[in-house]
Amino acid sequence: MTTPPDVLDAADPLAQFRDRFVITDDVVAYLDGNSLGRLPKATAERLATFVQDEWGGRLIRGWSEGWVELPVTVGDELGAAVLGAAAGQTVIADSTSVNIYKLLHAAASVRPDRTELVIDSTSFPTDRYIVESVAASRGLDVRWIEPDLVENVTTDVLASVLSDRTAAVLLGHVDYRSATLLDLPGLTAQVHDAGAVIIWDLCHSAGAVPIDLDDNNVDFAVGCTYKYLNAGPGAPAFLYVAERHLAAATQPIAGWWSAADLFAMADRYDASPTITRMLSGTPPIGGIIAVQEGVRLVAEAGIDAIRTKSIALTDYLVERLDDAGFDIATPRDSSGRGSHVTVRHPDARWITDALIERGVIPDYREPDFIRLGLSPLTTSFAEVDAAVAVLIAVTL
Prior knowledge:
2 domains; pyridine nucleotide biosynthesis; four-stranded antiparallel β-sheet; alpha/beta; Aspartate Aminotransferase, domain 2
């Protein structure tokens, strides 16, 4: 028998975090935190202070009073709280798309004798488009993985495309459609055994799943901050370069912020020897401040506790959906899924619109997926229960 949602919420050690976000009365259930997280109250207050006191009061003096260091400072905070990354390897910069572009070039530069990039055909569109673009610009070939929707990229599937021609492999840690959580340690080791390097897209796992990049010997990683890190729409992304690759990792957008001496205005470009070599132009300070506040909430809650609640939420949702007879396109084993659950239905687009009209906010993905995103710091079991009740009513 399913435990009542009020009992689950009363026993939830992270329940108090929900009160630290802006929650509006017009939403019955917000199940789209895997696309855009809720606004933390601390972020609203911090940004108001930044605008009034730092930008408004200190003006350009803010750069010498801490803004210059923020991309690395916040990158280190994110690395420690979310990525399992030691200091000096993570930086806040640009968008996920731009950072994937940079890291693909960097990865190819550390394997210059190899001629192929590998990606799966069901990766998020940006990842696929940019792999094709970088391959074309560097004269490389693309090898496509053709995975099952739910099983996704396994070691057997990956083995079929790896060879001594493979320079780099780009994989999404959590599939954006099915929520399948890939075996990051095992697949990373497999890529290394083939003599290649790996780039992990962490957009749908960062802030919801423990990652441990250093312990798993990951080469490169990238991700957004506006989902489970709650940094706001269009917030700057992050990228990670393992320390062992910093000297050889060459990125293609050599702006002044990636130079060894930022303010030398030198005639000749010399890349920074640190992670700042992955920067390009002037950082968006307001956006980085929002990232910092989101990361600090995750650090306070603890990524392991967040993962425990994520599993509890998705288990509860899967059970409710099963009881109602819905077609679930997400792994049943909680160790193999991220923090959303996907329902397949031939009328998925219409159902999504109908849910939104009734105050339940999921999102739709082609061709027939309804994604129900469960953000552990803000989603309650009562929300999940209410959402399923509306879903049942809409589909009757």
